[in-house]
Amino acid sequence: MTLERLKAGEVILETTRTDESGGAAKIVVFIQAPVEAIWDVIYSCENAFIFLEGLKLCEVLEQTSDYTVTRQVVKKGWLIPTQDYSFRTVQEPFKHAEFRLVEGNLKAMEGSWDFIAMPDGVVVLHEIRIQPGVPAPRFIVRQLMRKGMPEMIACMRALADGSVNADMKTRDLAMCPAN
To answer: What is the CATH number of domain 2-174?
Structure first.
């Protein structure tokens, strides 16, 4: 049943509560594209400016065959302080990646990406937990995640040319904050 929903284009989001200010989410999506194309979208600063709302700066600070350190600066609006942070991504290309905050004005940011190859595409599982560096009402952070995460993932699907049909690609592209 769930695979049918995913192949129909649904982005499934499960928010998880934490006792801390901040939020956590698990997202599952089916992308009808080669895993390499999806990976290239996720780990491209150029594409991040399209799918990550409020991104002002993205730069790779360090890169080896095992990990990458990336700095991002995000400003989403006057109610939310500018987020300036660096994170380290340990990767097993095209299968799994884990990221964790290295430094910045967030208290915590961690998560993972998993890619499950199917004959006609890839099931992508994404988990993330964010805790702002300044006190913020949990409901605001969770609301931003509830709305923003599915939109970001749908945009990524379109950028990887993995929407299941032309109508969905149009809808997915409309989710990109750069549009």
So the answer is: 3.30.530.20
Structure tokens at 170: 């149009």
**Residue 44 and residue 163: Cα distance in Å, rounded?**
19
Judge contact between 12 and 5, C-beta under 8 A: yes
pTM recorded for the entire structure? 0.89
Contacts made by residues 118-122, CB under 8 angstroms, sequence distance 24+: 118/30, 120/32, 121/7, 121/30, 121/31, 121/32, 121/33, 121/162, 122/30, 122/31, 122/33, 122/34, 122/35, 122/38, 122/162
Return the ∠ at Cα 16 (arms to 85 and 73), rounded to 5°. Answer: 15
Extract long-range pairs of 60-64: CB within 8 Å, 24+ residues apart: 61/86
Q: What is the dihedral of CA 142, 53, 48, 70, to 10 degrees?
A: -60
CA 74 to chain centre: 14
User: Looking at residue 52, what DSSP letter applies?
Assistant: S
What does DSSP assign to residue 77?
B
The kind and range of the H/E element at 57 are strand 55-63
Q: pLDDT for 32-56, tens place per residue?
A: 999 999 999 999 999 999 999 899 9
